[in-house]
User: Fold these one by one.
Assistant:
Number 1:
Amino acid sequence: MAGRAAKIARRTFLIGTGILGGSLLIGAGVGAAYVKRRLNAFEDYKLPASPGEVSFGAWLIIDRDGNISVAVPHQEMGQGIHSLAVLLAAEGLRLPAERVKAVPAPEAWRFVNPVVMKAQLPLDPHSESSIQAAALWTVSKLFRISGYQSTGGSTSTRNIAEQIRICAAVTLDMLTRAAASRFGIAADRLEISNGSIAAPDGKRATYAELAEDASRLDPREVAPPPLGAGAYSGRGIARADVPAKTLGLARYGIDTREHGQLYSAIRHSPKFGGKLLRATLPGGLPGVRGIVEGEDYFAVVAVDYSTALAGLEKADVQWQQGVGLALSTKDVFGAYRAALDKDEKYPSRWVIDSAGVTARPSIGVAAGSGSERRIVSATYEAPYLAHTTMEPMNATALVTDTSCKIWAGHQSPTVAKLLAARAAGLKFGDVELFTPYLGGGFGRRLDLDYIVKAVEIAKHFKNTPVQTIWTREEDIRDDFYRPAAMADLHAVLDGAGSLISLVYKIATPSLSDQLVKRIFPAAKGGLLADKNAADGALFPLYDIPNRSIESFVVDPGVPVGLWRSVGHSLNCFFMESFVDELATAAGVPPLAYRARLLERNKNNISRRARTLIERLVKYDAENPKQAARPGVKVGRGFSFAECFNSLVAQAADVEIEGNDIRVSNVFVVADCGFAIDPPNVIAQLRSAVNYGLSAALFGRIDLEDGKVVQKNFDSYPALTLANAPRISVEIVTSNAELGGVGELGTPGIAPAVGNAIFAATGKRLRSLPFVLSTGA
Amino acid sequence: MGIEVALNGKKTVFESPASTVLLWALRDELNLVGTKFSCGAGICGACTVIVDGQQQRSCQMSLSDVAGKSIQTIEGLSSEIGKVVTAAWIKAAAPQCGYCQPGFVMAATSVIEANPKQSAEEVLSQLTNICRCGTYDAIREAISDVMTTLKKKGA
């Protein structure tokens, strides 16, 4: 990359490393020594162990009974990451999984998540450039010292799997050598089984007995056995949290019960950007301990939540007149349309075209001429979406003059402590965080406004724990939404229907700008090429010789955040629906058309992509869709996506009766490199499909006069047993680098269903949620 | 002078005011947190308890509504069918985040106890609970397993 493009890319790297963690000042030349110290601390970190326990590296503890604790720096929100850590530790130590338990990793730099930070960099993941690889390697090392811990982006397994496997292999080696030394027998004559190491003459010692001696040996670099070679990888284990969750014994943030705890019900300004004037509770209410006036909210604090809610309804509240957003959904999409039509108010933020990343606005890719050429143009739209985790937002805070304790589900302990400390007027180290199970994350719990507000409220009741719970109505209208977007897609096909060029323009807010400002309010926006806006369209595997993807940042002021699969949830719908439109224009069946778009590239990932398309072809041939019945049209649609370093393809069957859309069956075929716990991978794919389908059929957050229209599950419905499809899953093992799974099923379901609706009815739906209407 | 109920088979007196929502009385007065709050509008079923044999959404009831009645929460699920349901649920590994699952288990148990000879499809058609993790395939498997087991037992 030459000149200006290279400068921008380098600056993007630097800024990319600086956003989260805040302590990197490489550009200012701060301390190579500082960096080195922190990197060494990273490498030398040893997991703290209690008396009687022995720790190995950063990940494992052997207790007196020879049972194992494995440290997990990711929060369990249903994705099964705690179980994955148990699986790998058990397999590596050749123990039954029942003897291993997951424990939360300490909040230490060692447990940073560089994978999720790398994913924010607008780099072509298919690039084979060694310069890019070297740069990424360096940047990963630097990300490490940021100390940013987080759970999300389908990165948890990729972050910890290899580290745990290596640690277990090294630990087993140390235990074996300790036994060899103790018995005076060569290590290769020892037998390891069920937590003991035995010599041929019958002498034996348990891991517990060997642990102390083993820990004094120098670790040796030992390669772990390949995935699939041990007891559990490629097979799975029973998740240890399942019984407790079934029997109601699992505890979530909302279940925190601290001595003397009070409960608070919060109400936010009905308009985004609104400000509170005053809130009072005239006449009080028995059981209410007070009313807290925040900047843009108020809260009633009481002895139980029922009373707090009653207080909320009885409160006399006034919001500042004329403050806050006044726009409606129409205005948002009107602004998007203006941006795409080149209104100067919304300049192009960046363009990525076939030549790489540039900052010059695109002037459009030459369409060429010739009567055989066909032009296919379409505009696609998608609405704001709420997350609606089953457990509404809540946090319990206990603030004293010198400390702050927080009990809450979240997806980043680093951000939780940073924001809690700031809100309490204390230091990062003064905050103690207790993290239970999360009743759903989906990206919502990466925005920790609910912890901030809980602290602010608890400050008014120092030395008393106060649990602030959001009602479902508050949760829906004060979310950080999946951004709404509008995209213009313009393609040129040659006489044979092959794709010659694609111009893709998207208007949507910058998620990165908002995210950064929420953690570092003084940060300047507009520096980062926001990959989130066009993820899913940015670096397609499809062979598109001339392509241009341009982003226009239009931020109407609605808070936006990370929603399961983020940019892919928009751009996979746009792209995969549009590819079907191209196939139709070319007169080629949709799967054959995709195969054509993938056939030229000879790299491994394209081969893996073609394999998935072939599996869809096979599925389609072997599983005829249901026959149409009188009054019922049927159709099957397909989609393909590459995201989170994995590949996935889907087939969806729809039945259309009148204007009713019913998705009866979905088939998912996924390649995440290697499925370490296949039953859990299947569960995650099903979960992500249903999450995306719920949105595709029902999801819309509308604004009227700056207020969210939707209220609860009546006006913002969720998929239920009645309308959830039967989802079958096939896992393809490519043994490629591990890819993420948690969000993998979401992007492709909307286009698969949209394409199925087209197949059934001939109607092309270009906006979500899908609504059929009689007539046009 | 409180509200008396039979809670999980034991006589229990609530001290909270009669107008207190049952869900919060269970959770906040008695610290029985297995029954969950999710929508507060009777739509999602996370707060499902069994009152006098019927599944009820506890966020829609007050203490005065249940005075003198028998209430079963997830903590007290101990019937034969309840045990079959929870065993099948665990075998199918239905829970992911798990927050909605106790409500589902209570709803399923009460529906099946009302008629243990139903088909799995009939049972499923009466379960309107919401699961945002979308574990519906595993739930279908669990219910199918339960009804097969009960059929074998000749329930």
Note: Chain A has 20 helices and 28 strands.
Number 2:
Amino acid sequence: MSDQNIIELLRAQKNEKAFYLLYKGFPVIRKMILANGGRKEDAEDMYQDALIILCKKVSDPSFTLTSSLATYLYSICRFLWKDELKKKNRLTQFKAEPGDDGVDLSEEAEKESKLKQAEEALKSLGGKCLELLKMFYYEFQPMKQIAVSLGFSSEKIAKNQKYKCIERAKANLLSMQTGKI
Amino acid sequence: MRTELELIEHIENYLLGKLSPADKTAFEKEILADPKLKKEVDMQRDLMEGIKRSGMTQDAQNAYKKYKLNKNFKNWGLGGLSALIIATSVYLLAPSLSHHSSRELDYTLPETNERGEKLWADADKYLPYQRFSIDNSKDTILESRSGIVFVIPANCFKDKNGNSGGDVSFEVKEALNPSDMMLAGLSTRSGDKQLETGGMFYINATKGGENLSIDPNNGIYTEVPTNNYKPGMQLYHGERTPDGGIDWIDPKPMEKFLVPVNITSLNFYPPNYLDSLHRWGYDVKDKKFTDSLYYSFASLFGAPPTGKEHASVQPNSDSIEEKFSPDTAKYTPNGRALYTTNCRSCHYLDSRMSSGPGFAGISKRHSMEWAVGFTKNNIAYAKYDKEAADAIKLTPNTMTVFEGTLTPEEIYSIVRFIYNEPGETEVYHPESDISVHGINPAKVKAIWNEQFNNTLLATKEFEERMPFIHQTCQEEILDLYVNNLDKRLSYIDSMAGNMENLQNDKFREFALRGDGRVKTDSKTLKILKRYYETRSKLYTDAIAKTAQKFWKEQGEMDQKYMDKNAEHINKDAVRNLDNFNKEFNLNLKEAYRQLGYDTIAPIPSNVFGGTVTQTGWSNVDKAVLESTTNRSTLNYTDPVTNKKAIITYSPLTVKMNDMASFDRVMIYLSQHELSSFMRMNYSNESGGFKENLNELVSYDLVCVALKKDQWYMYSQPNVKPGMINEVPLERIGESDLKKKLNSFAPKSQSKDMQQDLDFMKYQFKDEKRQQKNLERQELYNKTLPVVLPCMGLAH
């Protein structure tokens, strides 16, 4: 499957399939992270984050790929891992490679960590809320269909429930941000 | 739908672009103007993006699962999951994604195998070569097609003359999945036994067509990928058999090298420590705080006390003073002991009622200085203090007057003890033997620093052991690890597993993992051992001294507070008495005047709400006394002459709506004719400060308030009875305040008022200090069972 195919899949929102193909590049990156002071779990997390960033980048129609997807993923991972080590004050474990400074994803990384916090706030909502929100905001299903799938007695009730879920999520997010639990 | 939900709907429509252009512009204006609204919108936007991200996270996780499932046969594994860190330069060769399928497969076999024999197995024939060209004068890391990683150190290959280095051709054959294995006729047999395989591989190195050998002291570190780590895996060597197969022999255990990390990034706290602090609302990211709280418990492991009493667990200022008092000849009262002797018979420390009430929750009912006064002489106190009068009524029994039996210091120490003790059941009996049973935090402090970087303590693997080491409550287990830094971690695990402790099984489990070592030279090890021993002791002593010094200082400040309070109460009492006398005299004089008596009976002095012992015009006196005491209107008719004496008292109420926003509020009435001032009291029923004004006196109203460090003031000369609904307080600097007070009244009066205010400020500040100490004590008490869970248990 060529790079172009994978890009097309990503742009067509067929993320899971695209990611599955991209996992072929994981072993190299895992070795790299292990060699730079990380563990297996770190590699898995980094790769997941990198795939998401890649997906968002590719979906931007103005984005052009100047190298292979594998190389680009590799440099995303290196940036993220270096950033991670910086945060944990373990930068001494990072071994520099030429080409490291060519990629600057600080803006993306910062946005992602903000969104990760939002993800955390959502996690504590519980299954039905998460499903409802995901169906509406990620899969773009119409409220009528969602009401039926989740067993709400009417579209109006489902809509109300959706707003209640968001209200709760906002409260969680606020308490996370102000540091009180 | 609720308005909150409607707002969310509106924001959603805005974020999804569903608003009409007019509505959109209007809403954006609103957002700009209202930061709270902006926050709501931002949060909702983040949440929307967050939902999308969690969708993508889900996709990635599903993809990973599928990938792992379909990846070649990785459910059996060998060990080796962490990379060895190479100091010198490194080559990284990796197969690129896009060339995966187009590599030419090379099956051609040379004439002789790696040993120079003309013997080839089926595996050799049916598995293709992967060849890598490397420079053996440098360290090299490379990865085979299936992901086996070879770490080839510099100069590990030797030719028949013993020379190394230079360009070497490194070849690999591998069979990691069942189809490859079957194709190659590889069996997972070792003699008669069936093996469970994590994969098989073949390597060889040649230079100029000549086979090289590997230096036995400088081997190639190999990592075979797995998703399931299984302990107990070993590395077998393959011997070709004449029938084309391979027999697996000579198993060697595999060592997993540990990767040292920065030790300060690891967590060596006792289990649940950070969680508990987090739950109680503390900032667990503040390492200074979490460290200092944890290490403070080292004081419990300090030197045994010199006095008779055993160490109590809490840093109670009494016992600390006694323990470490440099002048042991000086008598420092032991509050606990005195309580037990003098008070215990009538008062429990919990909420049970005995002859007298229990002391649980006493700090909420009475202040410490009240308790001191009451203990000294409860009967006298009750005569002029309402709080005491009520307290006496609690039981029909009479409480002993301790004045004269106990010195003030002794009474103070008892009160301090009572106020610091949480309740009867939690009192640690000084008679029982409490041995300190647990891991001394000072020992943890000694290892948890950069000195121990690059040892096996500075590994994530050791970090995994720490919670269990804590739970054994035995320092010998921690010592085991620290004193054997040159050994393999699994070896130390098995030693710990064989020692009698609460976590034997867990250590045996750890031992099975076969975790290896971190290379540290022996000289460094010796230094570290000595460092550990001496540092632990130094820290313990230092921490104990610091705690003692701190609580001693606090004890002194507590004493000062009680003294000042007592002084203040005295002053108040004196002033009240003085006021009373003066007012009484004034009223009496006026009453006599109204009744037409010229001579004035000798004025009784030091009348204090007591009985009148005068004869003569005692009726009038009694009436005036009552009226003065109650501050109520005198309306007396002389039964003989029918003349009347009327002295009116009228109420003045002062209300302040924002009283709660101030830390302290004091309202004074400066009394011209009496040359003194009185404080107005707050009355709940009227919701304000109330006092009855004597028509014979002219009053100035002075309101003073304190917010943090800022004074506020309002004054009204010649205030008349009635209602003042709002007090317009104005900020004022401290020196200006003093000047203004001076302008009100004769010097003595304003000085008194100033002193009153000074005391108020001091009291306010000190109460904050006391509150902090209380919280400190509470936190210490709460944390103790988490940090030292085995305390108080029999050894």
Note: The two ends of chain B are 64 Å apart (CA to CA).
